[in-house]
UniProtKB/TrEMBL annotation:
Keyword set includes Glycoprotein: yes
Compartment list: Secreted
Family annotation (SUPFAM superfamilies): FMN-binding split barrel
Assigned protein family: Belongs to the CREG family.
Native species: Anseranas semipalmata (Magpie goose)
Keyword Secreted among record annotations: yes
CREG-like beta-barrel domain span: 18-186
Pfam families: CREG_beta-barrel
GO CC term (a single one): endomembrane system
Source domain of life: Eukaryota
Protein name, entry field: CREG1 protein
Length: 189
């Protein structure tokens, strides 16, 4: 029995998936292990005005590694992007991240819609980061997405973050779990 416990320790140290009863920790874990998410806005574009519009964005809550994430989804944006134009009219959005983009679900043969292939839905708003947060956002994003550093400067890229107001976790059978931002930020991934 001691041998089995000792063998399980390294798995926990590497950041094993949290149990379903720890929904806040699961939300932090999934976000930290995802490199991109689907950001949904209300379109301000002609012909789509007022309709939902989802787009893929690279993101990061911190440098890769167990326990190192801040929980804040950072993004690198340009006003030239259609979803960013929507956000300039209405900054409210939702962001979905899923373990389907990691090896976890494939390894266990979970379909992306299977609740065991955990996904998190955040609601809130997108805001530009202030000067005191730029270095943190830059390190978080460029550590995971080094290509970003070479993107065209004339696109006027800026760092933004997703201000979380609501969180829903689907990581097990029985429906969504609601996590408050306070619960979310009080745990480590």
């Amino acid at each position: 029995l001691l041998l089995l416990c000792a063998a399980a320790l390294p798995l926990a140290a590497r950041g094993a998936i949290p149990p379903p009863e720890e929904a806040a920790r699961m939300a932090r874990f999934v976000l930290h292990n995802c490199d991109w998410g689907a950001l949904a806005t209300l379109s301000a574009q002609e012909g789509l005005r007022g309709h939902p519009f989802a787009n893929i964005f690279s993101l990061s809550d911190g440098v890769p590694g167990a326990g190192s994430g801040s929980g804040v989804p950072y993004l690198y944006l340009t006003d030239m992007e259609i979803s960013v134009q929507d956000l300039e009219i209405n900054s409210n959005a939702s962001l979905t991240v899923s373990l389907a983009q990691t090896p976890y679900c494939k390894k266990h043969r979970y379909d992306p819609q299977n609740p065991l292939c955990a996904h998190i839905i955040f609601c809130g708003s997108i805001v530009k980061v202030n000067d005191s947060e730029v270095a943190l956002a830059k390190k978080a994003l460029f550590s995971r997405h080094p290509e970003m550093e070479s993107w065209p400067k004339d696109h006027n890229w800026f760092f933004a973050k997703f201000n979380i107001t609501n969180i829903w976790v689907l990581d097990y059978f029985g429906g969504l779990k609601i996590v408050t931002p306070e619960e979310y930020y009080s745990v480590k991934p």
